[in-house]
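User: Structure please.
Assistant: Input sequence and predicted structure:
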Amino acid sequence: MATPFEVRLDGATFSGEADGFGLPVVFLHADVADKRMWAEQMEVLADAGFHVISYDRRGFGETTSPDVPFNHLDDLEAILDQLSIHAAVFVGASMGGALAIDFAIENPERTVGLVLVGTGLSGAAEAELPEEAEMIYDALHYAEDRGNTASVNKMMAHLWLDGPLSPNGRVDGPARELFLDMNGKALSKQGSLTQEEDRDPAEDAVGAIEAPTLLVVGELDFPHILERHSDLSEEMENSFAVVLEDSAHLPSLEKPELFNPLLLEFLDAVAGHSDVGDEEEDDEEE
């Protein structure tokens, strides 16, 4: 069972969880979620012999922060340092994937591998959306202007959980309930942090990443995210790309039975070429 932890940094208190021993695997959540989106993967990987870590970024979940200048990349580096994690595999979804890419560019020696799920990309141009998604966003902005957060949350679930071109409510049950709770918490904190610093654009540097990379995307995701997935598979020489059927932006939450075996197979391959986990275990024995 994952153990909660807190990291204090510049007035912020980061809420996280950790479990297991072995090669560190750090999970970075999407902007419509929090660390709970990875709960099932955390349990599966800990049982398989990995040291798993997840945390809520500023503005999400249970993490609290004053309104001060900050950068998610600086936060990630500081959290890893405080947890004495020198190097890890980073599993990032959406903007969590963008953060993982930025970390790998800035810290290649600390990046054992990457798993990028429907990934964002820092500095990417604003996407051209399909007409159906534009209509939903128009309604979303109308509700937002009137402070109807519950309606905003439901429309975001349609866009990001069901998929922008899929029927509303395609995904139901516990996955939808969790999405609405996670994104609802993020929406409740919206506007509380006004001083986030921009990170350098990653588009021109992503091809230099040498770490082994698993690229995953749901076939029902936004068209521009599917296109980015294809582009990255060509630009990142040491990558393997997979499109998961009948899933949208959060396949790890929607289709864990498809996602988890892929993740485990990739991590087993990476762990076979890495001694990071062995080094940490040796340090603990000393």
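The longest strand covers residues 12-19.
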